[in-house]
Amino acid sequence: MAFKLVISEGENSHQLEVEAAESKKLIGLKIGDKFDAFMVGLKGYTLKITGGSDKNGFPMKKDVEGPRRIKSLLSGGIGFNPKRDGQRRRKTVRGNTLSDDIVQINAIVDQKGEKNIDEILVSEE
């Protein structure tokens, strides 16, 4: 399955479609892992995974191990924004490992390459 990769670089963010062949190389990585962005067409860049969401829209959470989906009691943070103090709610979240069910991956630039991301994306089109 193809991923939608959202790369944040300071104030700017860029969205890429990752083909099915390259997406197989990303399966098994966890939140916080770094990978070489050459496989998605960004030569010299290293990206760090910060999160994502699955095909049903459930967010990935760093402290849930594996690719599973669970109902967790949340008091704030990723997946739940409480409206009053002490509020908790049981919400469904996805684990921290990339699998075939993940549709969107969020990443930040860890190491920059020679060219700017905008220049690389314009030259591909």
Describe what this molecule looks like in 3D.
By secondary structure, the chain is mainly beta. It has one domain (3-114). It contains two helices and seven strands. The chain has a five-stranded mixed beta sheet. A two-stranded antiparallel ribbon has the order 5-6. A hairpin with a 2-residue loop joins strand 1 (3-9) and strand 2 (12-18). The radius of gyration is 16 Å and the shape is elongated. The two termini are 22 Å apart.
Mean pLDDT: 90
**Roughly how many Å apart are the termini?**
22 Å
Structural class: mainly beta
Q: Could you estimate the helical fraction of the residues in percent?
A: 10-25%
Low-confidence stretches: none
**Count of alpha and pi helical runs:** 2
Strand order of the largest sheet: 2-1-7-4-3
Q: In sequence order, what are the helices and strands, one letter per element?
A: EEHEEEEEH
In this structure, how is the largest beta sheet organized?
A: 5 strands, mixed
Bulk shape: elongated
**What's the number of structural domains?**
1
Work out the number of β strands: 7
CA radius of gyration is 16 Å
Strand content: 35-45%
Concise description?
This protein has helices spanning 20-26, 117-124, and strands at residues 3-9, 12-18, 34-36, 46-54, 69-74, 89-94, 102-111. It is mostly beta strands and 125 residues long. The radius of gyration is 16 Å and the shape is elongated.
How are the SSEs placed, and which strands pair?
Blueprint: E1 3-9, E2 12-18, H1 20-26, E3 34-36, E4 46-54, E5 69-74, E6 89-94, E7 102-111, H2 117-124
Parallel strand pairs: 1-7
Antiparallel strand pairs: 1-2, 3-4, 4-7, 5-6
